[in-house]
User: Fold these one by one.
Assistant:
Number 1:
Amino acid sequence: GQNIDQPTEMTATEGAIVQINCTYQTSGFNGLFWYQQHAGEAPTFLSYNVLDGLEEKGRFSSFLSRSKGYSYLLLKELQMKDSASYLCAVQDSNYQLIWGAGTKLIIKP
Amino acid sequence: NAGVTQTPKFRILKIGQSMTLQCTQDMNHNYMYWYRQDPGMGLKLIYYSVGAGITDKGEVPNGYNVSRSTTEDFPLRLELAAPSQTSVYFCASSPGREADTQYFGPGTRLTVL
């Protein structure tokens, strides 16, 4: 079967750095996406990885290791507005997105 | 440019009732999707469309139907509502499928009692 695992909840302090991990087992791999979802709102795109390595975009970076079936999202200089759920999704061999349940990130002052 | 719009935002249905969730996008995207999101679970694909007149089942299609008569519109039909269909429904669109970001509508929160 297809499976995406990520921690259910994480807590971090404003101004700090947090790493959210995602491991996956899917039938094929055509890329990995990270989305942000604030409570009661729609998911919005954060990053995309298809090759191994680190992609940096401002305060957010995403890393991929295809051989390990592993990715992480790194958030630096945390702000209160970063309190949200972070969704990991893998595009399988049919180009359909398989979604993790999301990691709820709580930022404390 | 409104992006992806969905109506209604909220709805309460009785068991056995029917309804249509509306979805419209103004980005001229070929691909459109319907997902449901249940607490503690990942988004599940219900149906998707690769263009006007073409639709296909996703992971959880039972109890739902779709149509795609135009590029812009992709309505989702619930024929006989059941409590198991209580969920938040998101419509999304993308230009293509490879490496393309999906853009989501604001969602419809549906409760079936």
Number 2:
Amino acid sequence: RKEVEQDPGPFNVPEGATVAFNCTYSNSASQSFFWYRQDCRKEPKLLMSVYSSGNEDGRFTAQLNRASQYISLLIRDSKLSDSATYLCVVFSGGYNKLIFGAGTRLAVHP
Amino acid sequence: DAMVIQNPRYQVTQFGKPVTLSCSQTLNHNVMYWYQQKSSQAPKLLFHYYDKDFNNEADTPDNFQSRRPNTSFCFLDIRSPGLGDAAMYLCATSVGDLNTEAFFGQGTRLTVV
């Protein structure tokens, strides 16, 4: 079983749609969680950290469920510029390891 | 200003010819990571340093080595590149504490001919 698993893509949605991505992790000792965005042939960039209480940044909402070892990302009112691959990242503090999921590709069309 | 700098951005090497990729940081972060990313795949952790402590992933081939001579610099050495080693190599840094993000360099795209 992979340490971090994500919904397979691609997700093709129209502008203005709401889309949700899911991610599960296998190591119950994982301590920090992030969503990164990666554009084609570019390096990953932090989209948002994920906190236990859930957090929101504009059109983006992240949720963490430690009991189910599950992370989600919700994007509301999708824009063309949201088209990218979204990577779920888990940090295991005991080993200082950042582990990436395979990513979910989002394509927003007019 | 770039905080994690990778050189070169593009590297072409011959099959079997040793190659070194470099990464430098101005963040004074404790942890430096090297990832390999192939097309449409997740970045795969090869190894990382916490300060001078080296942590190798169990499935990282012996062909890949790393050096961290000081806090600012980290090198990835590929002793005998094969065609299957063609990929984007990403360097990242983090403080190493909880809830801190990783900062990535722009990557080095390696081509093996």
